[in-house]
Sequence to fold (148 residues):
Amino acid sequence: MKVVLLKNVANVGKEGEIVNVKNGYGNNFLIKKGLAVKGTKENIEKAKIHQAELAKQREEARQAAIDLAKKLDESQLVIKERAADDGVLFGSVTNKNIAEHLEQDLGLTVDKRKIEMPEAIRNVGHFTIKIKTAPGVIGKLTVIVTEK
Fold:
């Protein structure tokens, strides 16, 4: 039985895909729960149009991520923290701090989980931080930590 998935279903397919499933599974689970509709000509045509729209949205989101990565590559973020005479910070600069400073200083909203830091910054200096804006798109931000 052919069905058009309305939502992502684990081990079956993603939203908008046309898949073959067993009759019982299709009728009693997927269609009954509202996860799919029967694969009629009309529904298949609607699914193809929907897939084209989704592809367009994904491409727009990817382009926005590439633009954000370019902005990050061109930007420098200066963070002032208290430090000892030898340059060791009292505390550390984490990905959460960087995300907050990005929003406050540069107006860029980045999820702190997308900021890749092997460990927190504990010294004064220049650092290059990788920020994953989309799968396969990485921006490199220059972070300058100075003493207050």
